[in-house]
Amino acid sequence: MATINDNYLKLKAGYLFPEIARRVNAFAEANPGASIIRLGIGDVTEPLPSACRDAMITAVEEMGDRSSFKGYGPEQGYAWLREKIAAHDFQARGCEVSADEIFISDGSKCDCGNILDIFGNDNAIAVTDPVYPVYVDTNVMAGHTGDSNDRGEYDGLVYLPITAENNFTAQIPSEKVDLIYLCFPNNPTGATATKDHLKAWVDYANAHGSIIFFDAAYEAFITDPELPHSIYEIEGARSCAIEFRSFSKNAGFTGTRCAFTVVPKTLTAKAADGSEVELWKLWNRRQSTKFNGVSYIVQRGAEAVYSTEGQAQIKALVGFYMENARIIREKLTEAGLQVYGGTNAPYVWVKTPNGLTSWDFFDKLLHTCNVVGTPGAGFGAAGEGYFRISAFNSRENVEEAMKRITEKFKVA
Length: 412
Ligand code: MLT
What we know:
With 412 residues, the chain is of the alpha/beta class. It contains eleven helices and 15 strands.
């Protein structure tokens, strides 16, 4: 009989968001009249910008004409999109990133997992706690961990707690780690990193020969002009960091699918024989073999993000969700809850009231207010006692959810 990848058996029951969906669906089935408002998974609700839609419609028409029809595209993405990204997202901010260091993909979540293909199995890996569960689960699947304990922590991973006490920024580890996952603006806490904080990580990584996986999927939500949007704004990052970006949240592409990963050509890691190998070459090889690129139509839609209209439209979209975040922060604070994040990120991180566990608070909110959020414990042991509310929803739903919560959860 064929055998399985036994590492999958080490994973906790289900991926966080499907598990939440399962509980919510069970509640909805038992309470068919309940009007449930979903502020759990960070999924966008507002329509695609018209600039992107128009570009995709034109691209569909091109596909209907033999003279402009496209078959397989470059696995790395079309040059016209990569050049716009390099110029707009990096060079305009003083970052030295060239178009051929950008790899277009169908999502940051996928790339965060796929990137492990080009790394060895003996790396010491550090994650913050709480953390986006994909970083942990993909390492478990790849066999980079042992089993988990009763707190859900996997043997072999280095957990760096981020809590209110350290302002949700991890302390640089005292031991040597080889791969470090950082996410700023942070999912789930909504915390941000200053240039000084990132510089400390970059210096650590360069001193130890470590690689930072920098997830910047939420950079568009930064409102503070002092905060860095890319790790390449930090001197020295080109020799230690890979950056993940996405069109999902800024341009509403969660269902359309387009993202990109930056692998500088100056980045190396060690082979078994001790030689230094360029990671760019390995990632290029990996993508050329296992990926056939994002569809031409979708890449044209993503390109339109960089047009004058596209820029104005995504600014409005981001502003809309950030106004939701402001309302959530304001109303929950009025209700006596302690809130964090939500000023440079679309997530508000809430301290659960009256010592409730985060899953108890989840159930209470679902049952009494019919509002869905995400329990902090689902992001890691140090997320216990916290709860994430997503600002991705309509204004009407956000206002209604806050009305219900403030009525039911007035903390004395
Ligand atoms: C989240 O809710 O954390 C995000 O939607 C997950 C994701 O982007 O994959």
